[in-house]
Design brief:
The structure is a single chain. The protein is mostly helical. 81% of the residues lie in helices and 0% in strands. The protein is built from five helices and no strands. Helix 1 packs across helix 4, helix 2 crosses helix 3 and helix 3 crosses helix 4. It is globular, with a radius of gyration of 16 Å. The mean pLDDT is 94.
């Protein structure tokens, strides 16, 4: 396991535990609270809007990286709603497949 793989694990594992605790305590009603904070123009709303832009960028990268086909758009939806769990898992799997070839990890496969 490389340091980057370890970082992905250290980001993902506590986030999944924390998410499970929040869902257990508050349920799955995230979206109304998320957008309400944005509408209030609060610091929490600013953070949520910033995070929304990261999710959008992650979704755009996924659609592009995986070819804009059905697979690419499906993964874009997963990226948008899956956040860090999606991105960390995707990067981990791509690292397993391509090793340290960051061009192969981050860029779309070359056309045949």
């Amino acid at each position: 396991m490389t340091r980057f793989d370890a970082l992905l694990f250290l980001l993902l594992a506590p986030l999944l535990v924390y998410t499970a605790l929040v869902v257990q305590s508050h349920g799955l009603g995230l979206l109304p609270l998320f957008f309400q904070a944005i509408a209030e123009h609060s610091w929490q709303g600013q953070f949520n809007f910033d995070f929304l832009t990261f999710l959008t960028l992650s979704a755009c990268w996924s659609a592009w990286r995986f070819g804009y086909g059905v697979k690419g758009w499906a993964l874009a939806v997963l990226a948008f709603f899956g956040g860090m769990p999606y991105l960390a898992t995707t990067l981990f799997l791509l690292r397993r497949r391509h090793g340290a070839d960051w061009a192969a990890i981050l860029l779309p496969p070359k056309a045949g």
